[in-house]
Design a protein that fits this description.
CATH class: Mainly Alpha
Number of domains: 1
Bound molecules: fe (ii) ion
Number of helices: 5
Mean pLDDT: 97
Radius of gyration: 16 Å
Structural class: mainly alpha
Protein name: Starvation-inducible DNA-binding protein
Strand content: under 5%
Distance between the termini: 45 Å
GO molecular function, one term: ferric iron binding
Keywords: DNA-binding
Shape: globular
CATH topology: Ferritin
Family: Belongs to the Dps family.
Helix content: over 70%
Low-confidence stretches: none
CATH architecture: Up-down Bundle
Order of helices and strands: HHHHH
Organism: Streptohalobacillus salinus
CATH superfamily: Ferritin, core subunit, four-helix bundle
Length: about 150
């Protein structure tokens, strides 16, 4: 039972990463202004990391007997974060603020996952979640400082 909660939570993390990967590409493509080169590169670095973790979560879920979501419709339905169509220009600073909000949601999700993995005595998943949380928190510090 404890493990089922962990599997469901890991699957929601898979879905969230499916959406986050796409959303970071949107920012990478459409960012404009004097910080274009910095942010264009930063968003690329971040979607690379998110993509790696997306795969890690899905494969860990398979390893513990789960079944990761694997369609765009499932990702949207089960993601903790929301996407938005790019139908008008988004200021670069707003993109960073959006990302800070999304990463804060993600940190909360990771904390919940760490608790669930602990309850299920799944050290490997717990370790994976802690390592990733460390990285996202560091990005949050830098993005917050970027915003001044
Ligand atoms: Fe690119």
């Amino acid at each position: 039972m404890v493990t089922n909660n962990l599997k469901q939570h890991l699957n929601e993390l898979v879905a969230t990463h499916g959406v986050l990967f796409t959303k970071l590409h949107q920012h990478h493509w459409y960012v404009k202004g004097p910080n274009f080169f910095v942010l264009h590169e930063k968003f690329e670095e971040l979607y690379g990391e998110v993509n790696e973790q997306f795969d890690e979560f899905a494969e860990r879920l398979l390893t513990i007997g789960g079944q990761p979501y694997s369609t765009l419709a499932e990702y949207i339905e089960h993601s903790s974060i929301e996407e938005a169509a790019y139908d008008s220009a988004i200021p670069a600073e707003e993109m960073v603020k959006t990302l800070v909000r999304d990463f804060n949601i993600l940190v909360n999700d990771l904390e919940k996952g760490i608790d669930l993995a602990g309850e299920a005595s799944d050290d490997i998943t717990e370790d994976m979640l802690i390592g990733y949380k460390t990285s996202i928190e560091k990005h949050l510090w830098m993005l917050t400082y970027y915003l001044g």
